[in-house]
Amino acid sequence: MISLIKLSEEAFTLYRDQILAIEKASFPSPWGARAFLEEARNPVSYLWALRKGEHILGYICFWMFAGEVHLLNIAIHPQHRRQGLGTALLKKMKSFALSQAIEKIYLEVRPSNVAARRFYTKAGFQERGRRKRYYTDTGEDAIVMSLELFDRSESRAERCGAAGMTFSTSEAQKDFEVSKKRIDLPF
Question: Helix or strand or coil: residue 143?
């Protein structure tokens, strides 16, 4: 059974070696342990992992603030790629964002990362522009991609329901609290 867990500082420490190995296998300039710990402490950051037994299969890290989600990092263990796990993580993030009436998800991706660009395009993201010399390790530009979660012609009340109901972060976090219980994924 695959479950989604919240990577708190404690959980990251427990799975540190596995997460760093996935990160190293996935990116030319991988995050170190310090970067992951900073995200685990950051109040606007969400760091989730897919776990099967005691094995980490992949993870996602994103910020949620100012009505948007900024996807920072997503990676799947090389042996588990092309099995729908990355798509499942994106869907969980999108579902959580929708519960918060978030309007847009955006990210940066290297032009040279053709597989990631294809993955994001398949998930509905569109190229919106570039950030010049964004990647400091190579000086490579970043392609900015975004996904609109709502039709811009709808009013906020229509998006949130007839009463204009929104969900507080604390309510949504209770619904998505993954550090204390398992969320089974539909595979």
Answer: strand
177 is known as an active-site residue: no
Whether 127 is covered by a domain: the verdict is no
Domain assignment present for residue 162? The answer is yes
**Selected catalytic residue, list 108, 127, 134, 135:** 108
The overall pTM is greater than 0.85: no
**Which CATH number does the domain housing residue 172 bear?**
3.40.630.30
- Rounded CA separation 142/135 (Å): 7
Q: Each residue of 123-170: pLDDT tens digit?
A: 999 999 999 999 988 889 999 999 998 765 554 445 444 333 333 344
The tally of domains found in the chain comes to 1
Residue 45 forms part of a structural domain: yes
Domain interval for residue 168: 2-103+149-177
> Which tens digits make up the pLDDT trace of 49-67?
999 999 999 999 999 998 8
Residue-by-residue DSSP string for 68-123: EEEEEEEEE-GGGTTSSHHHHHHHHHHHHHHHTT--EEEEEE-TT-HHHHHHHHHT
Active site residue 108: yes
